[in-house]
Amino acid sequence: MDPGPVGTEDAVEIGFMDRLKMEKEMLGLYLSGHPLDHFQEMLATLPCNSATLTQEHDGQTLTMAGIVLGSRKMMTRSNREMLLGNLEDLRGSISLMMFTSDRDGPEKQAAFQDDCVVKVTGRVKVRDDEFTMIVDDISLLDFTYRARRLMIDADNLDDTVLNDIRRALLAHHGPMPVCFNLGDATVLAHRKYWVTDNELCRTRVADIAGSGHVWVG
Predict the structure, then answer these.
(1) The domain defined by 37-140 carries CATH number 2.30.42.10
(2) Confidence (pLDDT) at 116
(3) Is the Cβ–Cβ distance between 151 and 140 less than 8 Å?
(4) What is the pTM for the complete model shown?
(5) Quick one: pLDDT at residue 209?
(6) 8-state DSSP, 53
């Protein structure tokens, strides 16, 4: 019996990450985006990335984020299981090494797999200009994540007020993104205007912009 033409009700929607993975497997590159695009604001709040690592980071414990690639298992000479791979961010990559333990929850090893978008904390080891992170903790990044932002309704604010706001933002510089609402548009401010996430900063900006013009979103 002819089931008839295939309609839109028969179509299966491919998830964002699945689509990117298919593009990478078939074409060797991402076309419709990058797995880290969703997390750029969060990445900007981290102290370093693969491109900013230096010899001075040797022995330091840092937190980075990226995509796990080339993951594999091996056994050490002492018969201890170890996971190896690379963490690729938007600037480059760093090697990862993690010793497994019976005390680890299953989610930790599950995050150390190819194409997982993760946040990693560990001790950096530098040898012959090669960087390796000895992983202490690794977790999947949630695609529902959105960074806290300081939102400022800039409609009807004159240049004098806006300049006072800019000076206040500079005085409270930190990792929290700042956005200006201008009509129907939301504009992300340059990183130099990002601020510390505290009540003192919010109160100062609200005093300048006016009641109801400043909130955290």
Answers:
(1) no
(2) 86
(3) no
(4) 0.59
(5) 95
(6) -
φ/ψ of 35, rounded to 5, equals -55, -20
Give the pLDDT of residue 115: 82
Q: Which tokens hold the place of 136? A: 């202490």
pLDDT at 14 over 50: no
Contact predicate 154/182, CB 8 Å: yes
Sign of CA dihedral 60, 48, 141, 82: negative
Bridge-based pairing state of the strands 150-153 and 93-99: unpaired
* Strand runs labelled E in the chain: 61-75, 81-88, 93-99, 117-127, 130-140, 150-153, 173-176, 178-182, 185-188, 195, 214-216
Cα–Cα distance between 180 and 138 in angstroms, integer? Answer: 34
Local structure of 98: helix, strand or coil: strand
Helices 199-209 and 159-171: crossing angle in degrees, nearest 10, is 170
Domain ranges of the chain: 37-140, 150-216
